[in-house]
Write a structure and sequence with these properties.
This protein has about 400 residues and is α/β, with parallel strands linked by helices. The chain is about 40% helix and about 20% strand. Helix 3 packs parallel to helix 4 and helix 12 crosses helix 14. The longest helix is centred in the last third of the chain and has 20 residues.
C-alpha cells in the first residue's frame, strides 16, 4: 500500500531537523529511525517521549565519540502493512541502519523480519511478544525492555499469592494480547489459582467495553486481568469503576506504565499493581536520567521510553567500538558486538544481552500510591517486590530460538 501523507510528512519533518552535528567526511552518517505510534492508542506510552529519549542518548554519546547520527521518525499507526512499507523504504532508499521502538507486536515482528532480510538492526523496546526471542529470534534483533513473560510472571503470580486466586481476562485480540493472557493464566494456575473466563475484543477498533465488563462481573472472579495496553487499559479501568466491578474485583494491569497511572490519577488507580522494568524514582541513577530528560518532554518516561534511551545508547557504543563504516555494512555484526559488551546505563543499570537477543535486567512489581502518599504530580508508585534479572525472563532453553547452540 502507498505511504500515508501524514506518515511521510511526519518522517520528513523530523528527518530535516535530525542532524545533531556537522558531518565529518571521514565518518559516515549513522541513521536510526523510530517506527512508532505517534497518534494512536499507544502514543503516550511510546510516541514523542520515546523519540526524545533516543535523542538524549545520541546527544550524550555521539559527538563525544566522533559519530554523526541522524534520527528519523514515522507514525506507523499500529498497521503492519504501513510499517513494512516505511521500513523497506528506510532501509533501501534512505540509508537507515537501525530501527527502534516497534509499536504493536504485529508491527514489531514485521520489522524483525525485514531487518534480518536487509542485514540491519532492530531494537525492539515497546513490543511485548516473546516470539522475538523464540520462534522468530534473529541475529539482527535485540528485545530490550520487557515482554509478556516478564509482566505475566511478576504480576500474575503475585496477585494469586495476595489472595486473587480466581481470574477473568479481557484481551486485545492480536498476538500480544493473546500471548499475555496465555502466559499470565499459566502463572495463575501454577500458583494454585483458577481462570473463570476470558473475552477478546477487536484491536484497535474498540472503545466501549461495557458488555465485557458485565460478563466479567457476572463471573464472580476476584481479579480482572487486563491483557491490553495504552488507551485500552485506561478505558477498561474507567469502565470497570463505572460498572461497579471494583468493590468486588481487583484490577490487574498486565501491561501498564507509569504514564497510564499519571493519566488516570491516583484517586482512580490507588492500590493497582503492575510491573515495569524502570521507574524514575528507583535509585540515584534513574533520578539523574529523569532530571536530564525532564525539560525535553511533557510526560516523564516509562519503561518503554527509557528503553529507547538505553538501547540507543548501547547501540552507539557498539557502533563506536566496531567503527561506523563497518557498522553500516553489517547489522548482524553490530548486534553481535552489542551482545559481547556488558550493558550499563542510568535507566536499567548493569546488565547483558543473552544469546537469543533478550536484554536482561530486574523487573519491579509496583503499586499505585494513595493520593495522601504522593509528594508531587509524578510521585505515583512504590516498589512492592523485585524479580532478579536472571529470573525475570523466560529461560533460554524454553524459547526455541534457533540461534542457541545445543
Amino acid at each position: 500500500m502507498p505511504l500515508t501523507r501524514r506518515s511521510l510528512l511526519g518522517a520528513a519533518a523530523v528527518t530535516a531537523a535530525a542532524p545533531l552535528r556537522r558531518a565529518r567526511a571521514q565518518s559516515p552518517t549513522i541513521r536510526i529511525g523510530s517506527l512508532s505510534d505517534q497518534s494512536g492508542p499507544y502514543r503516550d506510552n511510546t510516541g514523542p517521549t520515546g523519540v526524545a529519549c533516543a535523542r538524549q542518548a545520541v546527544q550524550e554519546f555521539a559527538a563525544a565519540h566522533g559519530l554523526n547520527v541522524e534520527v528519523l521518525v514515522a507514525d506507523v499507526q499500529n498497521k503492519p502493512d504501513l510499517t513494512a512499507e516505511i521500513c523497506r523504504q528506510w532501509f533501501d532508499r534512505d540509508g537507515v541502519d537501525m530501527v527502534f521502538d516497534g509499536a504493536a507486536s504485529p508491527c514489531a515482528l514485521v520489522i524483525n523480519s525485514i531487518a534480518r532480510e536487509k542485514n540491519k538492526v532492530c531494537l525492539n523496546t515497546v513490543s511485548a511478544s516473546t516470539d522475538l526471542t523464540g520462534a522468530q529470534c534473529s541475529p539482527n534483533t535485540v528485545h530490550w525492555t520487557y515482554d509478556t513473560y516478564m509482566v505475566a510472571r511478576s504480576t500474575g503470580g503475585a496477585m494469586v499469592q495476595a489472595g486473587g486466586d480466581s481470574w477473568f481476562f479481557i484481551t486485545a485480540n492480536y498476538g500480544f494480547g493473546l500471548q499475555l493472557q496465555a502466559q499470565t493464566a499459566g502463572f495463575v494456575t501454577a500458583a494454585g489459582g483458577k481462570v473463570l473466563g476470558a473475552k477478546t475484543y477487536p484491536f484497535p477498533e474498540t472503545t466501549d467495553f461495557s458488555a465485557l465488563m458485565l460478563e466479567a462481573k457476572a463471573s464472580g472472579a476476584k481479579v480482572l486481568g487486563l491483557s491490553n495496553s495504552g488507551a485500552d487499559t485506561v478505558n477498561c479501568i474507567k469502565q470497570a469503576r463505572e460498572f461497579g466491578l471494583t468493590p468486588t474485583m481487583k484490577l490487574a494491569g498486565l501491561l501498564m506504565y507509569s504514564t497510564d497511572v499519571h493519566g488516570l490519577g491516583l484517586e482512580m488507580t490507588q492500590g493497582l499493581r503492575f510491573s515495569e522494568s524502570y521507574y524514575w524514582d528507583l535509585n540515584d541513577r534513574t533520578r539523574a536520567f529523569n532530571e536530564r530528560i525532564r525539560p525535553k518532554v511533557k510526560l516523564w518516561p516509562n519503561m518503554g521510553q527509557a528503553g529507547d534511551y538505553a538501547a540507543t545508547l548501547h547501540y552507539l557504543k557498539a557502533v563506536a567500538d566496531l567503527g561506523p563504516a563497518a557498522a553500516k555494512k553489517d547489522g548482524a555484526a553490530v548486534v553481535a558486538r552489542m551482545k559481547a559488551m556488558p550493558t550499563d546505563d542510568d535507566c536499567f543499570g548493569i546488565g547483558r544481552i543473552r544469546e537469543d537477543g533478550r536484554k536482561l535486567h530486574p523487573c519491579y512489581l509496583l503499586e499505585a500510591k494513595r493520593p495522601a502518599e504522593s509528594r508531587h504530580e509524578w510521585d505515583l508508585l512504590k516498589v512492592v517486590a523485585t524479580t532478579p534479572a536472571e529470573q525475570a525472563f523466560r529461560p533460554l532453553a524454553e524459547g526455541g530460538c534457533k540461534l542457541i547452540r545445543t
